[in-house]
Amino acid sequence: MGALSTFDTAPFDGALAASVLDWWHDAGVDLLVEDAPRDWTAPEPARAPLVMPGQAPAAALPVAAPATSLPDTLDAFLAWRLSDAAPEATWDGISLTATGPADAALMVLVDCPDRDDGDAGQILSGAPGRLFDRMLAAMGLSRETVHVASVCARRPIAGRTPAGVETRLAEIALHHVGLVAPRGLLLLGNAASRAVLGTELTDARGHSHVIDHKSGKTNVVATFHPRFLIEKPMAKAESWKDLQRVMGDLRA
C-alpha cells in the first residue's frame, strides 16, 4: 500500500495546476529535469519558417529592441508600470501599483502580488498583509508612512519570476528605489533580495547593505516574506532581528 493517497485528476483545472506549481516552488523545485543532459546556456537553434507548397515565404517581421529608458519622475514611472509597455503587461491578472508616500523614509519591496491582492487592490493583503501590518506596528510604522512596491507588477504563474525578464525587472526595481530615495529599504523574500542585492536571502540576511542610486545611497535589509513567516512561525524571532536592524538604520 503506497504512502500517497490517490486523487481524482478530472477536476485538474488551471487554479489547481497553479496551486501544485506553487507547492513545488515552495519545496525548492524551480526547473525541469530531462533524461539527457542539456546545455541550458547554448543559444536556441534557428528554425526555418514553415512554408506550404506553392506559398511564397513571408517577409520577416521587424523585432523591436527592448526599451531601456524609464520615466524619470515617480508619478510617470508608476503610470508606466501599469501600462502596456511594462514587461508584465501580457501576463494574466491585473497590475498593482505601489502605495504609500513618495518621500517615505522606508520603502518595502516584495516579489509580486499574491492571488488575493487583486481583489483587495493593494500589495500585501489577506493574512500576509495582516502580519505585515503587525510587523510595521512593532517598528512604530504603518502603511501610511511606508512606500510598498513589488518587483513584479503582476503575479507570474506559480509566483515565480520568469528567468527571461528577471534582469529587466531588477533594473526597474532599482530605478524605483532611486526615484523614492528612501533612507531604508526592506526586502521581503528571496526574489526581492535577488533583484536588489543580486544574492539569495540566506546570504543577504544578518547585516545591512548599502546600494547606490542616482539620488544617493540607501541602507538595505532583507528578511522573510510574511507568507513564509505564516508557514514557519519559528522564523519570526530571526525576522524581528532584521526589523530591529532596519529601525537602527532609520535612526542613524
Please describe the topology of this protein.
Elements lengths: L13 H13 L47 H8 L24 E5 L6 H4 L5 H13 L7 E5 L12 H18 L3 E5 L1 H8 L3 H4 L4 E5 L2 E8 L2 H6 L4 H16 L1
Parallel strand pairs: 1-2, 1-3, 3-5
Antiparallel strand pairs: 4-5
Helix pairs in contact: 5-6
Classified in CATH, the superfamily is Uracil-DNA glycosylase-like domain
The averaged pLDDT comes out at: 81
Write down the overall geometry: globular
Q: Which structural class do the helices and strands define?
A: alpha/beta
Radius of gyration: 21 Å
Strand content: 5-15%
Task: Count all strands and give the number.
Answer: 5
CATH fold-level label = Uracil-DNA Glycosylase, subunit E
Which residues sit in consecutive blocks of at least 5 with pLDDT less than 50? 1-12, 26-31, 46-67
Strand neighbour order, sheet with most strands: 2-1-3-5-4
